[in-house]
Design a protein that fits this description.
Number of helices: 3
Structural class: alpha/beta
Largest sheet: 11 strands, parallel
CATH class of one domain: Mainly Beta
Enzyme class: transferase
Family: Belongs to the transferase hexapeptide repeat family. LpxD subfamily.
Pfam families: Hexapep, LpxD
Subunit structure: Homotrimer.
GO molecular function: UDP-3-O-[(3R)-3-hydroxyacyl]-glucosamine N-acyltransferase activity
CATH topology of one domain: UDP N-Acetylglucosamine Acyltransferase, domain 1
Shape: flat
Strand content: 25-35%
CATH architecture of one domain: 3 Solenoid
CATH superfamily of one domain: Hexapeptide repeat proteins
Distance between the termini: 77 Å
Strand order of the largest sheet: 6-9-12-15-18-23-26-29-32-35-37
Amino acid sequence: MKLSQIAQLLNGQLVNLREDIEIRGLKSINKAKKGEITFVADKKYLKDLQINASAVLTKEKLDLEIPQIIVDNPQTSFYRLIDIFYPEEEKAGISKKASISENVEIGENVYIGEFTVIEEGVKIGSSVKIYPNCYIGKNTVIKDNTVIYPNVVIYRDAVIGKNVIIHSGCVIGADGFGYYQENGKHKKIKHVGKVIIEDDVEIGANTTIDRAMVDETVIKKGTKIDNLVMIAHNCEIGENSIIVSQVGIAGSCKIGKNVILAGQVGVADHITIGDNVIVTAKSGVGKNLEAGKVYGSGLQAIEWSKWKKVMFYLYKLPEIIKKLK
């Protein structure tokens, strides 16, 4: 694509252009070379800019000879270019190797890959893509423009909204982890509820979301969930929240809107987290959190010998306090 075309698409001002050049790809600031475009979000990164880049997106004119496209937000404009240069793979048609039961409703322009199994009563909207080796349980509803990547398992009665992305290896709607004691043995609590995934949700690879016991586990619209996250039965995750990798949320928790749970946060059962809360990495949440605050309890890594000394005095703390009294 010509640089002048890119400037027009981004509504940017093109400067330092001596002759229109072909842009063949995009690269980060320290790896861009001839034929590629990069971006500068802040002048402090200029020292990393490879002069071999053919052009740069910037917020203001830089003291460089290479062509520049001046835009309001170089970073966002660069993301738009990724969509333009690397469009989604077009997929359509239903493989003869897929196993589709009777009474399945399938919309227009649907792709269903090889060895996918779709059970009775499933409803699939238009422009849905279901890649190979997936399993879709009975009476599941999958709405328009949703993409389900290979090896996803969706148990029965799930509801998947519009524009949802579910990455490989996810399990949606498995039984919650629930048992009761009878005669000294763990007896399984049957879970007959469902999972509801609202519109515009993305779920990362190998994440699991359990079905409720009798009600619903709900992921509300716009929420983004990273890889390797565990969300237990009866939870509700509010709109536009961010759940980062290796977070574990126990049963019957209610997470508010615009919440960020950083990596490896653990949330105990029956916890309520208010809107706009941030919980920092490796923190354990054992009580309700008020809205609009930042919480954290994770320990930073320190040199091992120092940590051993800290622990030595920590164990002696009761004796020291006793002496001080």
